[in-house]
């Protein structure tokens, strides 16, 4: 069975510093996609970044980058130059072509950016 | 980017009444939509997968007669909570799936959610 693990329930970071949110996964399927979403207190889920299992390079989107280590089955999210608006809950998720497009979500990490 | 709307954003109802929540993909056609339930400070719990023109597929433990899902078109899915009770109070989120060019799997784009409170 596929499983996503986020081991950090809560994280704190100083404004303007970088922070890494951990995500490990377990699957035997060779074809999958990894996603990170941000959920602020308003509740909406905001798509941040995507990494495909066959992608050779780590994904980047502005201040977000994904540290993809396939052999270790980890897909950590790195946020550079943290801003107060980055305070939110962050979810790592995984999709499989063989799973009718359903996503498996981690338990989430609450990030608090301190001024 | 792909936009998904959800209506209403907040609803308060009396116990025993039914509530309908709409989920629309505004700028793309979604053959598949998903409905989730989320409790405070917890992860998303998938309730059902909704495919256009066919019956929804419910996850184990989700009562299909309680949570009616209809996916009448490629841009609209509805979730009806029938005979709502206080324990149905929760945050309900829909998502619509879109295959993005170059990606191995589909990306899910989420609606803003509906906060249901049953008195």
Compact summary:
With 115 residues, chain A is an all-beta fold. Helix content of chain A is 0%, strand content 53%.
Topology summary:
The complex is a heterodimer of chains A (115) and B (119).
Chain A: E1 3-5, E2 10-14, E3 19-21, E4 24-26, E5 32-39, E6 46-52, E7 60-61, E8 64-69, E9 74-79, E10 88-96, E11 103-105, E12 109-114
Parallel strand pairs in A: 2-12
Antiparallel strand pairs in A: 1-4, 3-9, 5-6, 5-10, 7-8, 8-9, 10-11, 10-12
Chain B: E1 4-7, E2 10-13, E3 19-25, E4 32-38, E5 44-51, E6 57-58, E7 67-73, E8 76-81, E9 90-98, E10 107-110, E11 114-118
Parallel strand pairs in B: 2-11
Antiparallel strand pairs in B: 1-3, 3-8, 4-5, 4-9, 5-6, 7-8, 9-10, 9-11
Q: Report how far apart the termini of chain B are.
A: 37 Å
Unreliable stretches covering 5 or more consecutive residues of chain A? none
Helix content of chain B: under 10%
Largest interface: A-B, 30 and 29 residues
Q: Structural class of chain B, please?
A: mainly beta
The biggest sheet of chain B, with number of strands, parallel, antiparallel or mixed sense and barrel status, is:
7 strands, mixed
Count of distinct strands of chain A: 12
């Amino acid at each position: 069975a596929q499983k996503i693990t986020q081991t950090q329930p809560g994280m704190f970071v100083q404004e303007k510093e970088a922070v890494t949110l951990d995500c490990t996964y377990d699957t035997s399927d060779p074809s999958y996609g990894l996603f990170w979403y941000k959920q602020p207190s308003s509740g909406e889920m905001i798509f941040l970044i995507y990494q495909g299992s066959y992608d050779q390079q780590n994904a980047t989107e502005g201040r977000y980058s994904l540290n993809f280590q396939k052999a270790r089955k980890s897909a950590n999210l790195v946020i550079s130059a943290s801003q107060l608006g980055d305070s939110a809950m962050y979810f790592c998720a995984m999709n499989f072509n063989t799973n009718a497009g359903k996503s498996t979500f981690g338990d989430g990490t609450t990030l608090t950016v301190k001024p | 980017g792909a936009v998904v709307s959800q209506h209403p954003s907040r609803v308060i109802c009396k116990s025993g009444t039914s509530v309908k929540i709409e989920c629309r993909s505004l700028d793309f056609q979604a053959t598949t939509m998903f409905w989730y339930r989320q409790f405070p400070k917890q992860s998303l719990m998938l309730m059902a997968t909704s495919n256009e023109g066919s019956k929804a597929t419910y996850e184990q433990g989700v009562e299909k007669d309680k949570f009616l899902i209809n996916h009448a078109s490629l841009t609209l899915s509805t979730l009806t909570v029938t005979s709502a009770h206080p324990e149905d109070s929760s945050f309900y989120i829909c998502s619509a799936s879109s295959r993005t060019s170059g990606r191995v799997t589909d990306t899910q784009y989420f609606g803003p959610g509906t906060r249901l409170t049953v008195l």
